[in-house]
Amino acid sequence: MKKILVTLMVFSAVLTACKNETKTAEAQKEAKSAIANEKEKTQILKGEFLYMADAAVLKGDDFIYGVVLDSMVMKLSKKIAPFKKDDYDMVPVIVRGIIKPNPEEEGWDEVLEIKEILNVSKPDETNLIKLEAKQPEK
Q: What is the DSSP pairing of strand 110-120 with strand 55-59?
């Protein structure tokens, strides 16, 4: 009688364990699917990045987007800091992000949410416009 009772307990434990494994496998599959969907929505963008205390912008050859101010922007601002000579310098970057409608009424129609920082490079100083002050002739 004890053998039958122990066998039934072990059998029920095995069945319960199998059900949990199935749920865990399904949850992992859904998580992988969600990550894959997010990767499909992201785009790689190359442009010049400008960050100020209350706004950030990414300007490319044929686009300009406001950038969502979040932790990724803060990381990017720290990476570009050594390349900036003043607050209004734009630094070339390559980022992966999601372009979405701007939830606010002000600003750009679409904003970029940065998901990954791929590259930060030194600005090309040959394209900079330099103003020189000249003393008037007497």
A: unpaired
What pTM does this model have? 0.63
- pLDDT tens digits, one per residue of 82-115: 988 888 889 999 999 999 998 888 888 899 999 9
Q: Are strands 64-67 and 91-101 parallel, antiparallel or unpaired?
A: unpaired
Give 67-73's long-range contacts (Cβ < 8 A, gap of 24+): 67/111, 67/112, 67/113, 67/114, 68/111, 68/112, 68/113, 68/114, 70/113, 70/114, 72/113, 72/114, 72/115, 72/116, 72/117, 73/114
How many residues in total does the chain contain? 138
